[in-house]
């Protein structure tokens, strides 16, 4: 099967230097067992790495963007070669900017030639901080540095992350946060126009019908009031540009015990540069038990989505689990072999409209 997205997007830059898809939801849904084979859309690699904490037999991380894979390969080498604190510094999760290039030089000769070539041409990204170097992170940074200061002081933004009860969060939101300028500027910034201009390829909106700014406004209430911002690492990065390492409010894969486990299982990761469609069309190995599919179905027509589902079902084991997100396009499997397990609207990566979890039941095949 030919991939629709391959001919549409610009895949010559890092679009995501971090993974913006709630890891705990993905892990809980996939229910990975030792011995399972997992297929995972790589993007920044963080969630594909996180799957290793469940000790599967293999995680195949796949992406058609070679720049995303150069990033993942650097993460893999750094995981093998560096201590936790060094890793955090190299990827720009702390402020020790002066040590980053030195740490890169330490592991440079362990990289394969293609990855080394990529990073030798992009040393400035390492210097500036890889964690903030993707196109989407750049969009978040614009909001944090240029827009947010026009709305709220740094002090008030920090107060948003104070631990408080749900009732107190609702009061803070209503009385301090949700001002006219917040409503106005956030609506303007989180609009389809601005995201297209700064954060995402235009063609990725081909099938989108929903208004992004309205969706984000309502999802933000969920993230700031129903959920506790103090526990949300994604929100920390978007609004403060840092994680709270002291209180362990960091993405799942950067929690020290998970990092250790990923390091121990790192040789079970296989990296493939390909589209999911083309990779599966030629896949003849052991049936796949878990699929972590990001929100790739948004970029496909309904017709291609159905064909892709048929392909997935043909390579999956009976009982295989799937996890994927919808942001602006409704995509949910409606073919026989897919059984819906759950749909969740609330998650820490609040900008998605829903998270879908499904199971393959081969007994339902038509
Ligand atoms: C789907 S995007 C995630 C997007 C992010 N959640 C958002 O909407 O802004 C994640 C990764 O999927 C890759 N990708 C998209 N469609 C793909 C496909 N059909 N096969 C393989 N990788 C794909 C992209 O290159 C990207 O690195």
List keywords for this structure.
alpha/beta, globular, 366 residues, 17 helices, 7-stranded mixed sheet, binds S-adenosylmethionine
Describe this structure in words.
It is a single chain. Helix content is 45%, strand content 13%. The protein is built from 17 helices and seven strands. It has a seven-stranded mixed beta sheet. Strand 4, helix 17 and strand 5 form a beta-alpha-beta unit. Helix 3 packs across helix 6, helix 4 packs across helix 5 and helix 8 packs antiparallel against helix 11.
First-to-last CA distance: 21 Å
Estimate nothing, just give the exact number of structural domains.
1
Helix amount: 40-55%
Question: Which molecules are bound besides the chains?
Answer: S-adenosylmethionine
Strand content: 5-15%
Largest sheet: 7 strands, mixed
What structural class should be given to the helix and strand makeup?
alpha/beta
Q: From the alpha carbons, calculate the radius of gyration and give it in angstroms.
A: 20 Å
For the secondary structure, the number of strands is 7
Number of helices in the DSSP assignment: 17
- The H-and-E topology, N to C, reads as HEHEHHHHHHHHHHHHHEHEHEEE
User: What gross morphology would you assign?
Assistant: globular
Mean pLDDT equals 93
